[in-house]
Write a structure and sequence with these properties.
This protein has two domains: about 1-150, Creatine Amidinohydrolase, Chain A, domain 1; about 155-405, Creatinase/methionine aminopeptidase superfamily (Creatine Amidinohydrolase), CATH 3.90.230. About 35% of the residues lie in helices and about 20% in strands. It has twelve helices and 19 strands. It has a six-stranded mixed β-sheet. It has a four-stranded mixed β-sheet with strand order 9-10-11-19, with helices on one face. A three-stranded antiparallel β-sheet has the order 14-17-18. A hairpin with a 2-residue loop joins strand 7 and strand 8.
Length: about 425
């Protein structure tokens, strides 16, 4: 949580923080500003001092809405002046600007650098800036960073945002299902009013229109895959594929609300009917899904939930990531992951080496068991996003029924 920044800085022996980069896709920036849309902004913080947002004059209203201490970059650090002083060299101008900012804001010692920036540009910029700061050390973190740890647990306001994201996602999924059911069927193929087959691409076009209508953002291509493609966990689905009865459809949707928080939900559907084999797989996935949800509570080791799932699927005769590492059939992934300002955050519900994380209040995670048999032409996955409340109990943020079969209307005759 944000309230832990000073403690986490002390643990990592950091005297100050610098967050750089435009806000789109910039997790640390969005986390600290509440999702404000900013260009070329900076965030700085000394340990024990408040955050400061350095922003452009054109975004002064957006910056004010964050409630942070603010510095108008254009008024105090005019870019044209720096360029003129550095004979038009943009790198030298940026280094000079940051060196002045560091001095004026009292940033010194070990300074952690975070945010989103082109890797090559960051290498050049930070390397030159370090030369201007002989008494300070610019440092980076890999993997278990300060912000990864802070964002791992959500406060009440963040969980409220994610609850709303789950509510809106469920509405969109319901509208997509209604859209599918509104089509008639000919020769087990869904057809549009003009008589042409309905395709995956057309379903996704409808889906995107509904996502936009609720001010949600589809930051990555939604998974809507059918048949064999549903047997490959992250296959997005071929746009030209026509919708057929009886095929498994994996619908994995992960939109985010305006503040940047995601929701992650997956349903498996069969239009019209399902085969006995599909029903059997689905019942197994749903059984372990229910077991995992009933087990999930504060204090449980994350790895124990994955072990529970591995044991169950192996007892049913399925290959798993433990019995067949790198395999493509059966249960091939971990049970879930943290969800927040990124679709994949800490903690992980995996048995990866070193994963000693205990579930704790404020954790928001996906729970998504699945079985995949691409060469047999099907895959099944169920996923909800759940939060652990302050009392340690689980609250399901997802809101949509689990029915496998989507009833269809009367079939057309030729």
């Amino acid at each position: 949580m944000k309230q832990e920044l000073d403690r986490l800085m002390a643990e990592r022996n950091l005297d100050a923080l610098l967050v750089i980069g435009d806000s789109p896709g910039n997790g640390p920036m969005n986390y600290l500003t509440g999702g404000a849309h900013l260009e070329r902004a900076l965030l700085v913080k000394r340990r024990g001092a408040p955050l400061t947002l350095i922003h452009g004059a054109m975004e002064r209203d957006t910056a004010a809405a964050t409630g942070l201490r603010r510095v108008d970059r254009d008024a105090h650090y005019n870019a044209f002046r720096y360029l003129q002083e550095q004979n038009g060299d943009p790198l030298a101008a940026q280094v000079a600007y940051l060196a002045d900012l560091f001095q004026n804001e009292g940033l010194q010692g070990r300074i952690g650098v975070y945010g989103n920036y082109d890797a090559g540009a960051a290498w050049a910029l930070l390397g030159q800036l370090q030369k201007r700061l002989p008494d300070s050390e610019l440092v980076g973190e890999f993997g278990d960073s300060l912000f990864a740890r802070a964002r791992e647990t959500k406060d009440a306001a963040e969980i409220a945002e994610m609850t709303n994201a789950g509510r809106l996602t469920g509405i969109v999924v319901g509208e997509v299902q209604d859209f599918l059911r509104s089509h008639q069927v000919r020769d087990e193929v869904l057809v549009r009013p003009d008589g042409e087959p309905l395709t995956v691409g057309q379903v996704k076009a409808f889906l995107r229109s509904r996502i936009l209508s609720y001010d949600l953002t589809e930051n990555n291509d939604t998974i809507f895959s059918q048949g064999r493609e549903a047997g490959v966990p992250h296959n997005r689905g071929t746009a030209t594929e026509v919708l057929r009865l009886g095929q498994t459809i994996i619908f994995d949707i992960f939109p985010r609300v305006e503040s940047g928080y995601y929701h992650d939900l997956t349903r498996t559907w069969c239009l019209g009917y399902a085969t006995d084999e599909t029903y059997a797989l689905y019942e197994q996935v749903k059984e372990i899904f229910d077991r995992a949800l009933s087990t999930l509570r504060a204090g449980i080791p994350c790895r124990d939930l994955q072990t529970l799932t591995l044991n169950y699927f192996e007892s049913k005769g399925h290959p798993t990531a433990r019995t067949h590492p790198g395999g493509h059939n059966g249960y091939v992934h971990s049970l879930g992951h943290g969800v927040g300002l990124d679709i994949h955050e800490m903690p992980n519900l995996s048995v990866a080496a070193g994963n000693a994380t205990l579930l704790a209040p404020g954790h928001v995670v996906s729970v998504e068991p699945g079985l995949y048999y691409p060469e047999k032409g099907y895959g099944v996955r169920i996923e909800d996003t759940v939060a652990l409340l302050p009392d340690g109990t689980m609250h399901n943020l997802s809101a949509f029924a689990y029915d496998l079969v989507v009833p269809m209307g009367k079939s057309l005759t030729r």
